[in-house]
Design a protein that fits this description.
Number of strands: 41
Oligomer: single chain
Structural class: alpha/beta
Number of helices: 31
Distance between the termini: 126 Å
């Protein structure tokens, strides 16, 4: 009998299994007779439908929540069945649920042409409609990519009308890794090699997305199918999960539109702009730093698709928001679908909304994120991948996991080195191949970038993006306008404009035409600069049109600001129809050769006004050098805070961005108070500086947007050593990349490692060879050895920096010398004194024009500047000479960091590191050290003030013992007695 009963039960089980299997085969699953939750479609728009669930439920003061699904999953993810319904749990717990339904794009008119912008704006539109219908701010919630839409919509609206943001497994930082433990660089660098036409040329069918998700969680997928088969005899048990199974395995998946996929991968995977900011929605730049409402993020501890570090990136991306976290031992789908979600996730979401409305306590599983430190990762055996493997096999994988991690670190390190080399070697190789007759110009490089990535953003200005394609159209139109007014190749044309898109387009158009852009400074003397630049035409923007019209002997034209107000008397180039301008037979785009003059910039003023003439080769040297040294890529945004007329903007910021394929963000003016807000909005990763320009930024009060910023480099030249250290200390992990370059010559030094603040590093590959040579400071001549050749300095010895000159360019060199180290060689005297340390790094001691000729000998400013700058309470140091009879007194003026007090003992101890003969006779405290518009120190006003007055406690002198004491009247009289000048040797 027992055997018979067993056989009967087995037969019945096999019969039930066969019957149920037949039903599944015929109908795709079981009919559970479960109805969806009641809802009404409140509105139907081009991109979405807005569902209001339980519309007949009595309304009161309950919170309102809008749920947003991901692109590839239907809106039914929030209402799979009566047993697995997020909207039902929310309604039962006092929350009014609404859902955005994007539909199935493959079945919607134009659905496969949708972009990320379409979806983000749709969410914003839904928020407005719900607010109008309910009179309440909306709690925005989204799952997976739907949560990314929620972040983006809240940022786009700057949290207007958004009560809070709730996300479930939504990545905010893809740099920390990819699904299933793959490293982030695999996507960023792999996607870079996929052309736009391929990436966005087709939609991804729903079955492909479903298969991809299943492959990302293969163990769970296989286990789910095995469990289904083993329980196929028990229809009632399977029926409880039938709707969920059918949703996840077939019915819940829809196509991913090609344009949205391309935009998503480019902006948020390759360039990681969820974290850095600067992503484009419509015609606006957006950053998650603009989210100010509270954020609740649900983290799946075993989520292979959106691992915890990716999700927790919101802490860094939204520094102004108070972030809360709920961490659950769940996978990606388990956060919102299934028993755990119904029991833990959705009750917590409802409790959160009521808490924010002042009705309940904060749910137990929700905790605020405090401080800047990342939370400890979930203690899972072997991490997500190892945990999944152990679920299947039940055996430890620690040894294999350890080997994998070791190999991964090694591969990653090798990839970093090889990747940077692969990126930089072609740039340096191209630079070294440039000869005087090689075609090379800004216009040429811009055309190359436009052909390579037409739809990518080229530059950013006042919160708006401009693509390469749009920039090329504008540049080509300006070229035709220039031809119409008679500009030809080689003509020198004045540009009198502020920093604006039109100025950039005009400079690029002149380059494309083969003409020379003479960059007149709006804050300078345009008349003197126009004469020095030999211009016969000046093109101005509306703000500077009157000054252009007042110039004698030149034709003035107006460009920019079309359709805005009175255009004035100048010939308006905006009314020229480019389509009606016939291109002459002589015109060839980008004809410029490396040896051709490309730009003229100016420095100094009055009698010190000088014109610097920059060839295409010199511009390319800085462009490729900056791109290589800073490892610029399309993921970078270079922020130029200096005017376009400044050499650093033209050569480094603009040049580096064009050569490196990075985005260029133009600042109309530099304001430390708005720097970090702009940096977040633009997604800045590299910011430029000149001289002491970052001093105001490092002295500014802390800005919330500064926390977890994305800036990795500050690039520029002339930064004092003490400011360098303070910048790296405050804005870590960003570091300073300091360059040295002569505007006209081809010598470039760069401190790549950053390990020696104050050092100018070593010669950039591809730039001119440099050597420090012994130099007679008294006579201003190179010192010669017994053989008549110059003598190269030993390590630690101060000498004049010489830069090798190509014989073809010797005619344009400023101070050329021949036969220096061997017969027939050619060098130029830079006028800068350097010492080279034992490691081969160069240190600037001072410029020849800055030397102070005291009664005891010549004093360079560098050692004094560095020694005083190392005193913690000192902010800025200027070293100069005060004329006293036929000699000078070495003096230093310092400004103090507030609040701070300088003591004489501080001066004495700091200056012990300087040779006695090179120490200053006077150190004075000033409220502010004068600077130029480019933030370069101006010593002339200090020099003109002479020896400071005694008795105010703000001036100190060096006594006979070498100590520094407050300046007395008697000491001041002694200093003013002119000692006899030392005879020249």
């Amino acid at each position: 009998m027992p055997v018979a009963n067993t056989l009967l039960r087995l037969g019945a089980r096999l019969g039930s299994t066969a019957q149920n299997a037949l039903e599944v085969a015929r109908f795709g699953g079981f009919d559970t007779e479960e109805d969806a939750s009641p809802c009404e479609v409140v509105t139907e728009q081009r991109v979405y439908r807005l569902r209001h669930y339980f519309p007949d439920a009595p309304s009161g003061d309950e919170p309102v929540m809008l749920l947003v699904p991901p692109l590839m999953i239907t809106a039914e993810v929030y209402d799979i069945s009566s047993r697995v319904s997020a909207v039902k749990v929310l309604r039962d717990r006092g929350v009014d649920p609404w859902v955005v339904d994007f539909g199935a794009p493959e079945r919607e008119p134009g659905g496969l042409e949708r972009t990320v912008t379409d979806h983000v704006l749709a969410v914003g539109d839904a928020v407005d409609r719900i607010r109008k219908a309910t009179g309440k701010d909306v709690h925005l919630a989204g799952y997976s990519q739907g949560g990314m839409f929620v972040y983006q919509a809240a940022a786009y609206r700057r949290s207007e009308g958004v009560a809070s943001v709730v996300t479930f497994g939504s990545p905010a930082d893809t740099s920390v890794g990819l699904p299933f433990g793959l490293p982030g660089w695999l996507a960023s660098e792999g996607v870079e090699r996929v052309p736009d036409w391929l990436l966005g040329g087709f939609a991804v069918p729903g079955w492909v997305t479903r298969l991809g998700f299943q492959l990302l969680s293969p163990v769970k997928s296989v286990r789910s199918r095995v469990d289904f088969i083993l329980q196929l005899h028990d229809r009632e048990r399977l029926a409880q999960r039938e709707r969920q199974r059918r949703f996840l395995e077939r019915e819940g998946w829809v196509s991913w539109p090609g344009p949205a996929l391309a935009e998503f991968i480019r902006q948020f995977v390759q360039h990681n702009r969820m974290l850095t900011g600067g992503f484009v929605i419509g015609d606006r730049l957006v950053t998650l730093a603009d989210i100010t409402c509270p954020v609740l993020t649900f983290v799946g501890e075993v989520d292979e698709i959106a691992p915890p570090p990716m999700v927790r990136g919101i802490r860094r991306a939204a520094p102004r928001a108070q972030v809360y976290e709920a961490s659950l031992r769940a996978g990606h789908f388990g956060l919102v679908v299934g028993g755990l979600a119904i029991a833990r996730t959705w009750p917590a979401v409802a409790g959160w909304a009521r808490w924010r409305e002042g009705g309940d306590d904060l749910p137990e599983i929700v905790a605020p994120v405090t401080g800047d430190e990342e939370a400890e990762p979930a203690g899972l055996p072997g991490g997500p991948a190892g945990y999944a493997l152990q679920l299947a096999t039940g055996v430890g994988t620690s040894a294999a996991r350890s080997a994998y991690r070791t190999a991964s670190r090694a591969v990653h390190g090798t990839r970093q080195l090889s990747g940077e080399a692969a990126q930089n070697l072609p740039r340096l190789a191209r630079l070294e191949r440039i000869q005087s007759d090689t075609r090379m110009s800004m216009g040429l490089l811009l055309d190359e970038q436009a052909a390579r990535r037409p739809g990518e953003v080229f530059f950013l200005y006042r919160g708006r993006p401009y693509t390469h394609e749009a920039a090329k159209r504008r540049i080509d139109a300006v070229v035709r306008g220039l031809i119409h007014i008679g500009v030809r190749r080689g003509d020198q044309v004045g540009v009198l404009m502020g920093t604006r898109p039109t100025a950039l387009a005009l400079v690029a158009a002149l380059s494309r035409l083969g003409a020379v852009a003479v960059l007149l400074r709006p804050d300078g003397d345009p008349a003197a600069e126009a004469r020095l630049g030999r211009v016969t035409r000046v093109i101005a923007d509306p703000e500077h049109a009157a000054r252009a019209a007042a110039l004698d002997g030149v034709q003035a034209y107006l460009l920019g600001g079309a359709g805005r107000g009175d255009r004035g008397p100048l010939t308006d180039m905006e009314v020229i129809d480019p389509g009606q301008v016939a291109l002459p037979g002589w015109y060839r785009p980008n004809p410029g050769r490396a040896g051709d003059l490309a730009f003229v910039v100016f420095r100094g003023d009055g009698e010190q006004l000088r014109a610097n003439r920059i060839t295409n080769r010199r511009w390319a040297l800085s462009a490729f050098g900056t791109a290589s040294s800073a490892a610029l890529s399309p993921s970078d945004t270079v922020y130029s805070i200096t005017p376009l007329q400044h050499p650093s903007a033209l050569l480094m910021s603009l040049g580096g961005a064009v050569a490196g394929g990075a985005r260029l963000a133009l600042a109309s003016s530099y304001d430390p108070e708005t720097f970090w807000d702009e940096a977040r909005r633009y997604g800045v990763t590299v910011a430029s500086y000149t001289w002491t320009s970052l001093g105001d930024l490092v002295n500014a009060p802390p800005n919330p947007a500064e926390r977890h910023h994305a800036v990795r480099l500050f690039i520029g030249s002339g930064m004092p050593r003490n400011l360098w250290r303070r910048v790296e200390e405050r804005f870590a992990p960003a570091r300073v990349l300091e360059f040295y370059a002569s505007t006209e010559g081809e010598s470039v030094l760069v401190n790549l490692s950053g390990k020696k603040p104050g050092s100018l590093g070593r010669p950039l590959p591809g730039s001119a060879e440099v050597r420090p040579a012994r130099y007679d400071l008294e006579s201003g001549r190179l010192a010669e050895g017994p053989d008549g050749f110059a003598v190269e300095c030993e390590p630690g010895e101060i000498g004049m920096l010489l830069a090798r000159v190509r014989l073809a360019a010797i005619g344009s060199a400023a101070r050329p010398v021949r036969g220096v180290f061997r017969p027939e060689d050619a060098w130029t005297i830079t006028g800068d004194l350097f010492r080279r340390d034992a490691d081969g790094d160069y240190w600037l001691v001072g410029r020849e024009t800055e030397l102070i000729r005291t009664a005891d000998g010549i004093v360079p400013p560098g050692p004094i500047r560095d020694a005083l700058g190392d005193i913690p309470c000192i902010g800025t140091v200027a070293v100069y000479g005060i004329p006293v009879g036929d000699t000078e007194l070495a003096a230093a003026a310092v400004s103090l960091r507030d609040p701070a007090e300088l003591k004489p003992l501080d001066l004495s101890e700091a200056l012990l590191r300087v040779e006695p003969a090179l120490r200053p006779a006077i150190v004075r405290v000033v409220d502010e050290v004068p600077v130029t518009a480019g933030r370069r120190l101006r010593t002339a006003p200090l020099r003109d003030e002479g020896v400071p007055p005694a008795g105010d406690g703000r001036a100190y002198y060096r006594d006979r013992a070498g100590a520094y004491r407050p300046l007395s009247e008697a000491a001041r009289r002694r200093l003013l007695k002119a000692p006899p000048a030392r005879e020249a040797r």
